[in-house]
Amino acid sequence: MFKIGCHLSASKGYLAMAQTASSIGANTFQFFTRNPRGGSAKAIDVGDIEKYHAYAEANGITAILAHAPYTLNLCSADAAIREFALNTMADDLRRMEYTPHQMYNFHPGSHVKQGVDVGIDLIAEGLNKVLWEDMTTTVLLETMAGKGSEIGRSFEELRRIIDKTELKDKLGVCLDTCHVHDGGYDIVGDLDKVIDEFDTIIGIDRLKAIHINDSKNPIGAHKDRHEKIGQGYIGLDAFEKIINHPVLRDLPFFLETPNELDGYAGEIELLKSIRK
Length: 276
Ligand code: FE
Ligand code: FE
Ligand code: ZN
Hints:
Shape: globular
Bound molecules: fe (iii) ion, zinc ion
Strand order of the largest sheet: 1-2-3-4-6-8-9-12
Largest sheet: 8 strands, parallel, barrel
Helix content: 25-40%
Radius of gyration: 18 Å
Number of helices: 9
């Protein structure tokens, strides 16, 4: 089954997100666990969650992806900011257990002049504090474009974080097509080579989700500016290969393109039309 969806607003709860997803032809969705800039999360509404589960079951929604606030920085030089990131993630991961066996994606962090090695150590140290043995959620490290001092600009950096994390079976990777392209991986010219490299360095079994975004900038730009599908430097032909690739085709795909709902509906329709 082609699992395709987009980023949705979480403001009206889980059932509303699932209904919105269905209304635009999606069978999966991504949402922020709280205001993307951080702040406190709405209390979990158990009634809403129950209705969500029934609706999801009836409408073929099997995978959902929660996204941590993008301002969280597990490897900040400031201990108070690291502490805030840890507390937020710990709270998010407890809340995720209301929808068990789903995925939680986060940006590894920015080392801001401390250097990559320190950054990687701090991220793994943080993960070692917030992951626990019996959790059912898979925590995804997102591949990053390498803007500023972002960690996760290469598969090697993600691998080093995984290596230093004790509960490795809780970790996976979310590959963002705009980010890896901006990071210098040639998914347009040689997708197979990029997938092979991912497999050699990280292991393809870790790949759990795809953020499907075009890019406003050429390969290697390290910018991270998403473009609508087919209107950027990645282009529709590359997306056709990506969504049909035997290694990728069964993963859930999430659009994070600059769109409102009707734009997402159009992109989902477009992607379905080129799905083989
Ligand atoms: Fe992200
Ligand atoms: Fe992304
Ligand atoms: Zn991005």
